Amino acid sequence: MNLQSRKEEMLLSVIKEELREQLKQTIFECSQDADLPFWGEVFSVIQQMKKIPSNQMPLYEIYPVGGVCYDADKRRFVVKIPDMDINMKDAELADAIVKQGLFHPK
Fold first, then answer.
1. CA 45, CA 21: separation in Å to the nearest integer?
2. pTM of the prediction?
3. What's the rounded Cα separation, in Å, for the pair 22 and 41?
4. Among 1, 10, 40, 61, which is most exposed with the fewest C-beta within 10 angstroms?
5. Which residues contact 41 (CB under 8 A, 6 or more apart)?
């Protein structure tokens, strides 16, 4: 691995971590004020997460066990939990996070 690819990998790792923290912060802020509409903010963050390359998967881990990945070939998010993979479109993942309180990052 050359220096340039190592730098790119480190940058992508930082970006991925920042997006995960942004998602957690958005969820936290809106849990404090239920009147805030935040579906669009969550959707925007997961749109950015789609740009992370597959070698940086999972995008984030979920509680208590599992992770969320993006399959660019299928153009779907994949929630990986023991004994099951759940394929979801962008809007479905945003709905699950916002409306059902599922798949929040650790």
1. 10
2. 0.84
3. 9
4. 1
5. 26, 30
